[in-house]
Amino acid sequence: MSECMGITVNRIDFLGRRLVVDRQLVTPWRWTPYLSSPKSDCSNRVVPLPSDIVDLLAKHLAERGLTAANGEDFVFVGVAGKPLRRGNVGDAMRRAVAKSDISREAVWHDFRHRYASLLIRERMDVVAVRHMLGHSSAPLAGRRRSGATRRGI
Question: Has this prediction a pTM greater than 0.70?
Answer without folding.
Answer: yes
